Amino acid sequence: MDIAQTKRRENIAEYILYLWQLEDLLRAMQFSPEAIFSTLIAPRQDLNEEQKPAFLIWYMDLANLLRQESKEEKGHLEHTLHLIADLHNLHLQLMKLPIGEHYRQTVARLEPELPRLRAVIGNPGMSDTELCFRALYAAMLYRIKGEGEKTAVTDTLEFISPVIAELAGLYGKVERGEIDLFKEK
Predict the structure, then answer these.
(1) Where are the alpha helices (DSSP H) in 11-71?
(2) pTM value?
């Protein structure tokens, strides 16, 4: 809960990937309150006994959302998919507006890799932004499992990471009112 709140405030991309990881973790624990408590809450030294029930409720709320959205076995919460759609809308704006000049240069290095990445990840109708997130998450899972040092996904990370990092940074600045997309340079 606290980690998610911090990530949401500081870096939208990390927040999305963190929630996706939590989704898989909750599934692995079969949404068991006991397993969630003993694995995710009890070991934390930074929480006092009064805080622990609130954390359990937060994790169980995530588990319940997965159930409500019929994503007990796979898939991602609509909340994160809407955030990715928001990021993609920003991407589209940055591809046109003067303020996106540097971003377009970063994206240009990724564009030749997108067809190969789409072939590996699948789903031809997926936005480029969601494709990048799915590739980042897949690479993260490969690393956790100790597999696939050189796969099409991990090869492409050097192109994806800068794009998503810049997009997330700009998203945060827009959200905080630090930049105006429509203001002339």
Answers:
(1) 12-28, 33-36, 52-68
(2) 0.91
